[in-house]
Amino acid sequence: MSGIFAKPNRNRPEPLWHQAEQAMRTLISSGEWATGAQIPNEERLCDLLGVSRITVRHALRNLEDSGLLSREHGRGTFVRSPTVIAGVRGLTSFTQEMANLGLNLGTRLLDARIIAADAQVAGALEIEEGTPVLQLRRLRLGNDQPIGIQTAHLPAARVQGLLETAASVSSLYETLKASYGIVPQEAREIYRIGEVKPEDAELIQLKAGSSAFMVERIAFDRSGPFEFTVSTMRGDRYEIRSVLHL
């Protein structure tokens, strides 16, 4: 298989993640990885390409965003036909979204702590599993009505001191910009329909098991991913608006 693609080489000018991505694109386009086939796991890809797990994750994320790969929780990563991703909108914070809608924003901090990154968080933030991350769980309100619960994860090394001041944070992005020089440049979101968990039901005033938007966001600044947030949003109080262009 290694003869099909050029193995990443540190002596070449292109970043290793780009070289790894091109190698995997070659495996897909050549038919070595057929449509519908499951590709090797991260550990095997590291051995195959001779790069770190963080580099592999960066390349996999780009291929997933391009519609060439599909990651299925608990099953693995599969090759799929390229898809069109529609509905691009501006990068805004929740605070700004509420202001744009003319709503008075309210935020209640439910929990703030330093935890070890699990596989999902580590993969999103392109860090090693077990790396300390700051987890912020917040109830978001508009005009005093619950809209959703957001659980944000940020690399602890980049936001030292934020744990102690978390209770006073209204706009996370404004705080990150003012105190840590972190300026969002891009965000990638996935929306799914899921069920409200029992521990969230009373907080957002829905019955456990009710349908709601489940939103995953990975936000990037010039240094890479700095935020992974998982949100449960009320479908009757939160809208997805898209402008499509030919």
UniProtKB/TrEMBL annotation:
Q: Does the keyword Transcription regulation apply?
A: yes
Record-linked CDD domains: WHTH_GntR (cd07377)
Q: PROSITE patterns this protein is in?
A: HTH_GNTR (PS50949)
Alphabetic keyword roster: DNA-binding, Transcription, Transcription regulation
> Where in the numbering of this chain does the HTH gntR-type domain appear?
14-82
Q: Which GO terms describe its molecular function?
A: DNA binding; DNA-binding transcription factor activity
- The protein's superkingdom reads Bacteria
Gene Ontology annotations of biological process type: negative regulation of DNA-templated transcription
* InterPro entries in the cross-refs: Bact_HTH_transcr_reg, Chorismate_lyase_/UTRA_dom_sf, Tscrpt_reg_HTH_GntR, UTRA, WH-like_DNA-bd_sf, WH_DNA-bd_sf
Instruction: Please indicate if the UniProt record lists Protease as a keyword.
Output: no
What is the name listed in the Swiss-Prot or TrEMBL entry for this protein? GntR family transcriptional regulator
